[in-house]
Amino acid sequence: MTDVRKAVEADLPRVAAIYDALHTAEESGRAVIGWIRGVYPTAQTAREALDAGDLYVMEDGNEIVASAKINREQVPEYTGAAWLYPDAPPERIMVLHTLTVDPSCAGKGYGSAFVRFYERFAQENGCPYLRMDTNERNLAARRLYARLGYREAGVVGCTFNGIPGVRLVCLEKTL
Question: In the beta sheet, which residues pair with residue 133?
């Protein structure tokens, strides 16, 4: 049984460990995400999200298997996307950032379940416009989001979260 909840201080080491495991998977060629160890995401990334009250974790039993940041903050790069609703009021747009699933748990549906939580959370908070992003190279995430009904609104070349040369895929869905 999985449950998503707001993260607490005690969750930070586990969230950072998931980031570390994802960096290791990418460095070994088992994953293509587009992140760089020591640059993004880091333990500080999780700390800042927790301090802002935006960090959420998914538990299966007593084990944290996934995390993400959820808020109404659109990154500046989003201005380069061809959104279907470019004039949607910012307070009605919910954004999913840095969705991570422990690579040892891949393929168990945690990513899909977390996105479904995000959609319910957005709806409960009066936000029918959903936005998120991923690296163009992250084909697994792009396939997941397409399966879940997200539309690619454009690809923006940028330095993103300190990583140069990113081609950021902006995604959207309307509830």
Answer: 170
